[in-house]
Amino acid sequence: MKFFLCVMGMVMIIEGLPYFAFPNKMKQMVSMVLGMEEAALRRFGFVLMVSGLFIVYMTMGGQ
After folding, report:
1. What integer pLDDT is reported at residue 45 of this predicted model?
2. For residues 25 and 33, is the Cβ–Cβ distance under 8 A?
3. Mean pLDDT of residues grouped by 10 in the chain (63 residues)?
4. Are 19 and 26 in contact (CB under 8 A)?
5. How would you classify residue 62: left for phi > 0, otherwise alpha for psi between -120 and 50, otherwise beta?
C-alpha cells in the first residue's frame, strides 16, 4: 500500500506540473480536447493505457 501511495503521489506531481508551469497553454490544450471527437479520444486513451502497461511490464523485468 505504501508503494501504491508513493506512485499515486508521483502521478499527481507529474500531472499537475504542466498546469502550474504553463497555465495558458493548458487552457488552449483543454479547449482543443473539448473539440475532438469521442472516437479519437478513446483511441488516444487506449494508446496511453497500452503504453503505460508496456512501460510497467518492462520496468518489472518482464516477469
Report:
1. 95
2. no
3. 91 95 96 95 96 90 68
4. yes
5. left
Between the alpha carbon of residue 55 and those of residues 31, 48, 50, 59, 62, the distances in Å are: 29, 10, 9, 6, 10
What distance in Å separates the CA atoms of residue 23 and residue 30, rounded to the nearest whole number?
Answer: 10
Q: Do the beta carbons of residue 33 and residue 41 sit within 8 Å?
A: yes
What pTM does this model have?
Answer: 0.68
Q: What pLDDT sits at residue 24?
A: 97
Q: For residue 54, what is its C-alpha cell?
A: 508496456
Compute the C-alpha angle 39/35/33, nearest 5°. 80
* Measured distance CA(48)–CA(34) in Å, rounded: 18
For cell 508521483, the residue is 10
